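Follow-up to my post from last week.
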Amino acid sequence: MASSFARILSSKRNVGILSLVGAGSLTVGFLLNREQHVSAGAQVRRVYPPSAEYPDLRKHNNCMASHLTPAVYAKLCDKATPNGYTLDQAIQTGVDNPGHPFIKTVGMVAGDEETYEVFADLFDPVIMERHNGYDPRKMKHPTDLDASKIRSGLFDEKYVLSSRVRTGRSIRGLSLPPACTRAERREVERVVINALGGLQGDLAGKYYSLTQMTEEEQQQLIDDHFLFDKPVSPLLTCAGMARDWPDARGIWHNNEKTFLVWVNEEDHTRVISMEKGGNMKRVFERFCRGLQEVERLIQEKGWEFMWNERLGYVLTCPSNLGTGLRAGVHITLPRLSKDPRFPKILDNLRLQKRGTGGVDTAAVGSTFDISNLDRLGQSEVQLVQTVIDGVNYLIECEKRLEKGQDIKIPAAISQFK
Amino acid sequence: MPFGNTHNNFKLNYKNEEEFPDLTKHNNHMAKVLTKEIYAKLRDKQTPTGYTLDDVIQTGVDNPGHPFIMTVGCVAGDEESYEVFKDLFDPVICDRHGGYKATDKHKTDLNFENLKGGDDLDPNYVLSSRVRTGRSIKGYALPPHNSRGERRAVEKLSVEALNSLDGEFKGKYYPLKSMTDAEQEQLIADHFLFDKPVSPLLLAAGMARDWPDARGIWHNENKTFLVWVNEEDHLRVISMQKGGNMKEVFRRFCVGLNRIEEIFKKHNHGFMWNEHLGYVLTCPSNLGTGLRGGVHVKLPKLSEHPKFEEILTRLRLQKRGTGGVDTASVGGVFDISNADRLGSSEVEQVQCVVDGVKLMVEMEKKLEKGEAIDSLIPAQNI
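User reply:
Got it. Predicted complex:
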């Protein structure tokens, strides 16, 4: 057993080196893993034909249900990733949660990096639908974390109360939250907090393990709005993401409370940079710097993030592929928010609004959370610039309405640059 | 198959200590029994359907338990689970079932004629009588582990069997996913409808997967014999009626069960049963008879008596509120049922209920007249 584990580690180093050389590391990684774990992909007994196992999706409204035909199911149901993750596991959350007539959920998750390859016949069309036409079979996703390219990005603080950028990162070679074993999850924790421990200067900070935090620490984290709790959403629990809670889960933040990392919640890591006020440029600069530092630190130990040209950063939910980035502000727009053209303006600027409690909450007063719509097909720099340009436009509109002037719906900006 | 744990071979790349769950804050039967040694011994094993130790214990890992209530914390995925993982299940069963040993034999007795009395419980006090149990169909995996195809096969076979019943048992099946609004209203009004489980104990064990596919309710025309299909077990069988005639309830229970079992045997899928564990069900707490026989009974004075709990224990009975397990009583009305499941027969357990409730109603009447009841309290456990 110990020798197999050592081989896994050394293969990760090889994959790392090969990716530097640009040899399509995902494919190589997949093949290397496959050699070692051939027996793990072996099938458990299948007594019934695919037609007897095909789920009843007639009352369902999610992306998985839209694309999982009996033919696709029959083709994929006997396959497994090298770690043994199966189609039935990937779609369980979508079968158990038929969805909402107005909100279309994704309805499936990845158990490991290879899920997106082995079950591409289902994941590719779902990705295309969810990401507004991005075709993973033909297109390439650009990654750009050079914050110096950002123009403007200091918002008028009469309107913008706070600025925030978040994303996720997965550690290559370890299964994702729906499928990881306790040992894998603990390994993710070790790798990540080891790297975070090496951060310095304004990024230096501390880790608070969910299993061991004191009452005072817990209260402080709640007061800072940093603490995350066991998921209650059936979308997540049906995918197996809350197993073994709170083992190997925790929160890390820097001393200044402007850079925060969640460990083993919905993804291996969720990385958040934020501050009060309108200095989005600084928030993004710290975001990029922190991410790149963490990446450097894990690479020193032979690890790397899951990433490929086709899908960008690989995360648990297909909706977070690409950049996994949501950059947003809390902003008050008392006049503009009442203007009937507001939704169309947001749409054309490729922005979305949420309440200040986050997704699925209502706005309080006329304060909104405004962020980018897109995740995949544009780089981090492009998406943040889109948010900056868009928010500046919204502020201009609000100012014009204050002076009794009229506003214009902007031209729709193109989605893929 | 439940999520996350079926890639067992891959998991063996990690050492025992790396995978062993953190049970330091846990209080359930599984956590008390599972040592690193047992974990090491069993972790590379699988039942013929591919169920593993981590699958068995997931619900107990995810639900640390309550300081006062001791949950079981492990489930079976198929009949063979109890054999393959006996190093875990035997001690859990022993703790849960009052010292039942790995070598003990369980007696099954569904001959209703062996019950003495039970037709004369005072209806002024006993409002309703009910007996329930569960049954698993041999050859199919259990609710924590079965695939959609298997669950549908269990439904198909069960509905065929139930629809062939006649006389007092003639009835109809209502599948959860296609019942009409009117049917649903009626089933709710009759208190027959079951809903998707919300208890994290069940959800963490994977029992609500694919809901409501292949789940349904069957009941006879008289509404006195009811079967739940694919809820917590393959089948839950319930016989009930208003009033205190437990003898009649038990007769119908035994006759109905025996008829159903005959039909399943003809299809070469009898019920899961063995000499040691009796009827095999998903949760170890329901092994043996899987039987809960009980009444809704008015005991406002007795329930206030300081020795109420002691009396129940001596009579081998337990109390619940009339909403079922974990509810409080309303207006002095309690659900009183047998505490035991394994190590005594169906007749013996229902006899406990009949004799015990009769005695408690006598006590209640005495207390109403202001008389003492000490002479009636049994000196020791019956």
